[in-house]
Amino acid sequence: MSDRPADSAEPLLSICLVGSKRSFSAGDELVCEYQVDAVDPADIQAVEVSVVWYTEGKGEEDLGVHYFERRLPADAEDGDLRPMRRLRTRLPNSPLSYSGAILAIRWCVRLRLFLRRRGDFVMEYPFTLGAVPIRVPAVA
Amino acid sequence: MARLFRFLEKKRGQRRTGSNLMGSVGEAIFCGALFLLGMLALTALVAAQVVRYDPQSLAIGLGWWLVFLVLSSFVVIGGVGLIRTALRVGASAERRGAMARQASELDIVHEAVPRPKNYPTVPPFDGLTNSPGVELAYRLPPSSTPGWRLLATTLFTLAWNGVACVLAVWTVQGHLARQPDWFLTIFLFPFLAIGVWSIRYLLLQIWLHTGMGMTTVEISDCPLVPGQSYQVAIAQHGHISVKSLELWLVCEEEATYRQGTDIRTEVRRVFEQQLWSHRDFRIEPIEPFQASAALPIPATAMHSFHSAHNSVNWQLVVRGEVSHWPPFERGFSIVVYPGEATLRVEVSANVARNALRPQHSVTGATTGATA
Amino acid sequence: MLNSNPFATRFIRPGAIDYLFPAGQSIDSLLAVLRDNHWWGEIIGPHGSGKSTLVTTLLPALHAAGRQVIRYVITPDGAGRPECLAPLGAYAQLADHPLDPSTQLILDGYERISWWWRRRIQVLCRKRGTGLLVTAHQPLGLPPLVVAEPTEQIAQQVVQRLLPSGDTSITPADISAAFARTDGNLRETLFALFDVYQSRRAIEDSLG
User: Fold this and answer.
1) The domain that contains B333 carries what CATH number?
2) Rounded to whole angstroms, how far apart are CA atoms C197 and C2?
3) B314 min Cα distance to partner chain A (Å)
4) For a tag on chain B, would you pick the N or C end, based on fewer CB atoms within 10 A?
5) What are C165-192's pLDDT values in tens digits?
6) Per-residue CA distances from B310 to A85, B271, B304, B306, C1 (Å)
7) Contact between C5 and A137 using a beta-carbon 8 Å cutoff
8) Residue C4: other Cβ atoms inside 10 A
């Protein structure tokens, strides 16, 4: 999904969905593990993980946050935010993933790492909620 | 006899047996005339004092001030009446009653109602179910009313003609006093022409929106769920000769993009299905045309969705072609919830087997990228 | 799972793609012109010609040159957003800012402000030595910086940058047709290609 950067000094963000499916029904439990590597723990300012939906298409992007967790070094054992951590959340009934003519609704797990000296880095793991079929618009 | 215009109308509670068109247009003409008469006379009264100041006539008592008050009341009553007429055009009987009962309070309550928390981003349907139907459970409000445009036209007409009256009185007085202002006289002609055009346009708008007759749509239940079938009843009022009348179920996507100084909104129809149609018939004022049809919601339909800049909207659309009137299309919003076929993902045996195998992960980093 | 349409707004908004400079023009050359005009200038062009994109492309260079950028978009109603200003209250809000010679004021949609208030804003900026860079659809009397006139060649280049490598679903003929159909409005060209891409990909997916 993302190219591994050539520079080994870049932080490595990992997201792993427990179970092999990437399509979920409404009400399913999403279990996800995430961790951060290749970065000095003292350099980490915060780690945020969220389960969000967003729109994409011809309109402004809208964003909805279903699950959000922000952790600071003080929240972690030994102040190290790197070790693997698990999130569990029950997915809602809506909005369902949708691929329309001028509008798409997408779901993803988003991991964002804030470093003191180098700004922030983000990683996304998309998944599908529900089973709304793809519409075939008329050929332009 | 029913075809002839009846001078005496009988009111049955909130409903009228007469022509809504004649009522609205007549009301507009009456209020407009009252406003113009008051404006002209008031201007003449004030202008007379300005031209030839007479302090004795301004003494408190029955005299100048009484006439001033009476004429002012003509202006206020006429102007407000015209605005109210414009606002009520296109409103159902239930809505007119609510407006009379200070509908703004009801609107505030509607705005304060939260969405059902089990279905985030699905718009609330309370506004659709607070109006009971006659044939079926709920009467749907129209998606858009001519109210704002008509109100704007009314306000413009009042303001412009008010000024025109003042100018006209001033000019005539100048001519009568043998001190004509020719620049004002020449300027007055186009000014009056625009005033007359605005009056004609306003009356035409009221005629168009009222004369066509109201369309009402009722449904058997709300909200609607994919895979289920419902009943829908339509009623078309008016005194018209209909070439065709159709009822459609429609789904549209709407996306708004703001970039720099440009705001761009695009609406794309992604689904439409004709539910019912009828051709070549007449509708009489005393008996609206009524019909009903089945309303099946496709099992795999996307649910109604609303976010700040994007939406998926379902509506029932009535399209009509009428003799001697422009064709019309009237929409009635409905709310569709997620259905069973779209809420659940079919899990294949393969995937179920793989669930027991080692986990799938994605590792990497986007350098400095933000979502 | 479908990939994103490369013409979605998230990929074409200013900042997502850089302004493509015609031959003989670059960020450095524009910065030099601005500097010569005491950081005053106007970017002129029709709708969808890339004015806001150019401003966004210039921002890092302006920061690097030590300019303290204050940027507003002038919208009819102020849009209720902190980065927007309504025409009527624009001068009052700008006057509240601590404007000084290191400030670079950027006003997108400058012609929405009336002549009188534009004069007052310009007097304010001159008094405080503040730079003023504006965008508009027609010249407003400031030193000209760029006249944005997208060409079909630029449209072809922009589209090639947006498409994933190896993606041939949009052809040069498609771009040419969309550019002609939208009368050279680059933003509308990209929106038109959104539809083309969307329909072709959806058909491919349904067949595949």
Assistant:
1) 2.60.40.640
2) 12
3) 14
4) N
5) 888 889 999 999 999 999 989 999 999 9
6) 34, 17, 11, 6, 21
7) no
8) 14
Half-sphere exposure of A110 (CA within 13 A, CB side): 24
Which string of DSSP letters, residue by residue, matches C132-149? Answer: EEEEESS--SSPEEEE--
Q: C16 to chain A: which residues are within 8 Å by CB?
A: none
Q: Which of C8, C191, C205 sits opposite A134 (nearest CB)?
A: C205
Complex ipTM = 0.89
Q: In one letter, which amino acid is C100? A: D
State residue B65's pLDDT score.
80
| Distance (Å, whole) CA C8 – CA B255 | 11
Sequence-separated (6 or more) residues with CB below 8 Å from residue B176:
none
Q: Is B136 contained in some domain?
A: no
Same domain (yes/no): B51, B193: yes
**Cα separations (Å) of C192 from B182, C4, C203?**
56, 16, 17
- The crossing angle, in degrees rounded to 10, of helices B64-88 and B20-51 is 150
Q: Show the DSSP H helices in chain A as ranges.
A: none
Q: Does C181 touch chain A (CB under 8 A)?
A: no
Residues C74-84 pLDDT 10s: 987 776 677 88
pLDDT tens across B137-165, in order? 888 988 866 666 777 888 888 888 888 88
| Domain-located, residue B120 | no
Backbone φ/ψ region at B282: left (φ over 0), alpha (ψ -120 to 50), beta: beta
The rounded distance, in Å, linking the Cα atoms of B27 and B31 is: 6
